[in-house]
Amino acid sequence: MSAVARTAARTALRAVARSAAKPSVASRSYSLLARAATAAPKVSQAQWPRGIKTLDFAGTKEVVYERADWPLPKLQEYFKNDTLALIGYGSQGHGQGLNARDNGMNVIVGVREGGESWRLAQEDGWVPGETLFPIEEAIKRGSIIMNLLSDAAQSATWPALAPLITKGKTLYFSHGFSVVFKDDTKVIPPTDVDVILVAPKGSGRTVRTLFKEGRGINSSIAVWQDVTGKAKEKAVALGVAVGSGYLYETTFEKEVYSDLYGERGVLMGGIQGMFKAQYEVLRANGHSPSEAFNETVEEATQSLFPLIGQYGMDYMYAACSTTARRGALDWAPIFEKANRPVFEALYKSVRDGTETRKSLEFNNRDTYRQDLEKELKEIDSQEIWRAGKVVRSLRPDYKQS
Ligand SMILES: NC(=O)c1ccc[n+]([C@@H]2O[C@H](COP(=O)([O-])OP(=O)(O)OC[C@H]3O[C@@H](n4cnc5c(N)ncnc54)[C@H](OP(=O)(O)O)[C@@H]3O)[C@@H](O)[C@H]2O)c1
């Protein structure tokens, strides 16, 4: 895809995301519910249901918190004296900010004046001087400072922003990155504020679309510093306010290690590596691009992986032929053995900060956008993904974007 086509595709994607951001019937009724709840008679705290659950996850007991624990009147009462200052309006800022606003929270957005986020925020209805401010001004006005700048920007802006995070405010992150790797990022929170985390397990766009469908993303929560004794409760409540369906507890360290590991592994890096290796062996043995792509990517994404998501691995195996099943059962442990050392090396590289340093170095470059574009273009021009475009165009429901 040419740079021009890419820009067009990105614009189209933004348009889709923006149209997805327009209130649906479901979200309208949800925000109506939120507004009605604002006007609803006050309920005493003793009457609020408490529904924290301890669940047995394959033999390990874990506490989960659900949205049902925080009905809207309770949520709105809890935050009635707070201003949520959302700093940054990228993927998470957009999703979390709009959800919190629809839930009746008092939300303001802080971004660079005149930047792309400033423009996008206005498109979503944030008003300069009322609910949209330059970053420093938003922090001054906020009681809960939600740092949703990109991780590299959190580090780059910290010297200017840190003095504004004064006693009594709460500092909120959606990733443990900045504070856990403080030796590299230099992000060291003041000692007199609560520092909490709500990390949605998905993109900010999904945070928004699931909320609008009346569902909710699952998120993890954690506490880095508890000055008030209320830090965990606040994290859970904020998690619900930004659109989580249920929340599980972790630590800042575990959140960042598992997140960096997962995205470099099976979620993104590993899957591209596996797909490409399998495809290239098929091609080297004389199989056509369409056959190699179908047997590698198309069947995975269109047929088998959704079954794993819905019902689990055994169900997917059971849904396949006896021949496929026998082979998969035999080869799974071979892949596990071959991959285990790679995953061990990856975890070590995450844990010792190597991955963080690489990420900060790359994402802070002046040429960051061009360098990224170049690498993504290399993937796009690989034969497997060029073949994929043609295969996708053959789907009966294919729509030219
Ligand atoms: N994206 C995800 O899927 C995801 C999932 C879970 C958690 N998280 C975490 O959520 C946080 C936010 O992530 P994100 O993906 O939403 O961020 P993002 O899209 O990368 O954030 C971009 C935001 O940072 C601002 N920014 C970039 N450089 C800046 C600078 N030097 N000075 C001031 N502002 C700057 C941008 O403003 P301009 O438009 O003005 O450049 C924009 O508002 C991160 O901690 C991330 O790890 C992300």
From TrEMBL:
Residues 61-250 form the KARI N-terminal Rossmann domain. Its EC number is 1.1.1.86. Transmembrane segments: none annotated. Pathway: Amino-acid biosynthesis; L-isoleucine biosynthesis; L-isoleucine from 2-oxobutanoate: step 2/4; Amino-acid biosynthesis; L-valine biosynthesis; L-valine from pyruvate: step 2/4. Mg(2+) 2 binds at residues 259, 295, 299. Substrate binds at residue 321. It is found in: Mitochondrion. NCBIfam families: ilvC. This is Ketol-acid reductoisomerase, mitochondrial. It comes from Tulasnella calospora MUT 4182.
